[in-house]
Amino acid sequence: MLAPPNIAWKKNKSMSRFWSAVVHGLTPYVPGEQPKLANLVKLNTNENPYGPSPKALEAMRAEVGDSLRLYPDPNADRLKAAIAEYHGVKPAQVFVGNGSDEVLGHTFLALLKHEKPLLFPDITYSFYPVYCGLYGVNYKTVPLTKSFEIRVEDYMVPNGGIIFPNPNAPTGCLLPLADIERLLEVNADSVVVVDEAYIDFGGESAVALVDRYPQLLVIHTLSKSRSLAGLRVGYAIGHPGLIDALTRVKDSFNSYPLDRFAIAGAAAAMEDRSYFEETCRKVVATRSRLVGELEALGFDVLPSAANFIFARHAGHEGAELTAKLRERSIIVRHFRNPARIAPFMRITVGTDAECDSLVAALKEVLATPV
Length: 370
Ligand SMILES: Cc1ncc(COP(=O)(O)O)c(C=O)c1O
Known about the structure:
Blueprint: H1 5-11, H2 21-24, E1 41-42, H3 54-61, H4 77-87, E2 94-97, H5 99-111, E3 118-121, H6 127-135, E4 139-142, E5 161-165, H7 177-186, E6 192-195, E7 216-221, E8 234-238, H8 240-250, H9 260-271, H10 273-296, E9 299-301, E10 308-313, H11 318-327, E11 330-331, E12 344-348, H12 352-367
Parallel strand pairs: 1-11, 3-4, 3-5, 5-6, 6-7
Antiparallel strand pairs: 2-8, 7-8, 9-10, 10-12
Helix pairs in contact: 3-9, 4-9, 5-6, 5-8, 10-12
Bound molecules: pyridoxal-5'-phosphate.
């Protein structure tokens, strides 16, 4: 009889001796939890509380059939055309990938690895330093201001590239487009990447600037405003010369990052403007109601242009509130590091009913003596 695999595994205590040196040096990204329990109020990973466009679901259903024996289009032309049409750019200015995480990963390798350091905020999407570790990118973090904002003047120094999310994560704070343009005017010799994962919830997209600034790359995802986190689709828009670099990396890694469902579903989601606009409007309306209610409970909430808010309470630690919410089946995200953001909780804007449950739970927690 074969030994159960776990017994064989236990005998080999030092399997890491087979690892390459690169793997020994990695500090991988830790994604937000995806609990298997039902009946949770899940406000921890900035998913959209509304389902995907019915037209996207229909388009994916139509892909179930014999054609699945064939590889998908390696260039995802149908999807690129839909993205180009939505943004008013040419398909040659569009790159698509398996989630914007993959698009970001290719960008770090293709465009941001240079002798001079890549610059990004000290408080930002925590995947950025992970890509730097994976690809050996030299980087330097730039502190946010006291009020947790990006000050573009701080990036006007010699660099091998610049990247930041706009709105920033996990703060939700928005940098006005005019500031991005001021940065592009003085920073012509390295690539500036604006990660617009959350832009549809309250900001003006830098895609409007790509024709004037060839060094600008704008990255989007369908995981948030298009409610398709489970499909894994992201894209970049920029000068065809930048897109070419990304395609060279992609074709040296995986020719078919998007399957037939992803190409069809994402294209239909890009085309369904009215559903997209309606769901974004609902999220934004719930966000302003939630902010008002949390402020009434004594929370300090950073101004958010995203589908999440970043909130702290003078009388309670972020970790403590997160744990107490968890006891009440409500999951939000807490970051221990850097220490400056430890007092905060990052709360995804859910449905009105989910946010009502959150506010009711917080009222209860705040009313209970510590
Ligand atoms: C700022 C930012 N960029 C990119 C992503 C990645 O999104 P996805 O890989 O789902 O497209 C996230 C996910 O939370 C994010 O917060």
